[in-house]
Specification:
- Pfam families: SOAR (PF16533).
- The chain is an all-alpha fold.
- The chain has 2 domains: 77 residues; 113 residues, Orthogonal Bundle (Helix Hairpins).
- 80% of the residues lie in helices and 0% in strands.
- Helix 1 runs antiparallel to helix 2 and helix 3 packs antiparallel against helix 5.
- It is elongated and about 105 Å long.
- It starts with a helix and ends in a 7-residue tail after the last helix.
């Protein structure tokens, strides 16, 4: 960063020198006594103007690069990540919620499948038993209602899935760690559960609220 600042300082000095040189050439051009001298000086002034524009563009690029570098350095200085034990508790919470959600999702799918299969069965009965049409029609109303309820539950499950994904993505950003990718619920439970003697693992004692040496 110090080297970049030094380069920027040198570039600004070069820019100032070019500006002074161009102004001097412009003044000399105004005071020129012959057309030939005037034309030559005008050409030199134009060249200096082009150089000046190039230097200005370079300076702007360098300033922008330095600005980005400072912003990145500031982000690194302020980067925070959750303590490792808190990360494991968050991962365990995510895994348990994921399993509960998958059970709910599976139940909703089964309910929808059962209602659809019953509807298909009643359709077949209606075609084969025209004399019992009224009875079958009443059952169809019940099946339609079941399908509608199952569809509503599936929509709720889909919305819940989107909410979970967004929520845990935000938690990962705020915690500065990966939560959805972890060692798995069994490994996490083994790491976090109390030992056989009833005392938690020493690594997690502060998190669970228990302290003390081994017996």
């Amino acid at each position: 960063m110090l080297r970049d600042m030094e380069k920027l300082r040198e570039a600004e000095e070069n820019l100032q020198q070019l500006e002074l040189k161009m102004n001097a050439k412009a003044n000399n051009s105004e005071n020129a006594t012959t057309k030939s001298d005037n034309g030559n000086r005008d050409e030199e002034v134009q060249q200096l103007k082009l150089q000046l524009e190039e230097e200005r563009e370079k300076n702007e690029i360098m300033k922008e690069q330095m600005k980005r570098g400072l912003e990145e350095a500031e982000l690194e200085d302020h980067h925070w990540s959750a303590p490792i034990d808190l990360q494991h508790w968050l991962q365990l919470t995510y895994e348990r919620e994921r399993i509960a959600f998958e059970k709910k999702q599976c139940a909703a799918r089964e309910q929808f499948t059962m209602a659809r299969e019953l509807c298909e069965k009643l359709n077949r009965q209606r075609r084969s038993l025209m004399g019992m049409l009224a009875s079958v029609h009443g059952k169809m109303d019940n099946v339609d209602q079941s399908i509608s309820q199952a569809r509503t539950i599936m929509e709720e499950v889909t919305q819940e899935l989107r909410e979970r994904e967004q929520r845990w993505r935000n938690i990962e950003i705020l915690a500065g760690c990966t939560i959805t990718t972890n060692a798995g619920i069994h490994t996490l439970e083994l790491m976090l559960r109390p030992q056989v003697n009833g005392r938690p693992h020493s690594t997690y004692a502060p998190s669970i609220g228990m302290t003390g040496g081994s017996q």
